[in-house]
């Protein structure tokens, strides 16, 4: 059987970069059931409302919605169950220390297949205030205008 190569994105959390200031990113595996993987291969998942917590030295992903597999039987999974994230102990201890120190949270940015295995990209993030969001929006708009003007001048308009 040939292995899949590369990274195939299943779901992204675009709002996360708007609502949080991303400080660091981590890659973690997820402990899944067979029907969950089959559902993910069909491209069905939503990580918009999900977040990660630390319980008893383990990291759990909560709120991840993987719909039931259409061809599944009574062995189908619960769509919104808590799923354990798989990381090295050193990384987990490092994250626990950072979360305790500051007002930080773990937010999933994307869910993807990496060489046939399901991975989640976690971000260590700090929540943005409303004025920070407005400043970012104004900065992006100004940058876009500058790029348009440079493009116009290059074209000679």
Automatic annotation (TrEMBL):
Alphabetical list of PROSITE patterns matching this protein: SSRP (PS01317)
Matching CDD domains: SmpB (cd09294)
GO CC annotations, alphabetized: cytosol
Keywords associated with the record: Cytoplasm, RNA-binding
Family in the record: Belongs to the SmpB family.
NCBIfam families in UniProt: PRK05422.1, smpB
Descriptive protein name: SsrA-binding protein
Organism in which the protein naturally occurs: Gordonia soli NBRC 108243
């Amino acid at each position: 059987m040939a292995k899949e190569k590369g990274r195939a994105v299943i779901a992204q959390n675009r709002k996360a970069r708007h609502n949080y200031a991303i400080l660091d990113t981590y890659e973690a595996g997820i402990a899944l059931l067979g029907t969950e993987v089959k559902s993910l291969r069909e491209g069905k998942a939503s990580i918009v409302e999900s977040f990660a917590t630390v319980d008893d030295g383990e990291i759990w992903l909560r709120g991840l919605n993987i719909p039931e597999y259409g061809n599944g039987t009574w062995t189908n999974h619960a769509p919104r169950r808590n799923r354990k994230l798989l990381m090295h102990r050193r990384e987990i201890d490092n994250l626990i220390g950072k979360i305790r120190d500051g007002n930080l949270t773990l937010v999933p940015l994307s869910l993807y297949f990496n060489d046939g295995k399901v991975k989640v990209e976690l971000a260590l993030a700090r929540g943005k205030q409303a004025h920070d969001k407005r400043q970012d929006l104004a900065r992006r708009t100004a940058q876009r205008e500058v790029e348009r003007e440079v493009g116009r001048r290059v074209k000679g308009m």
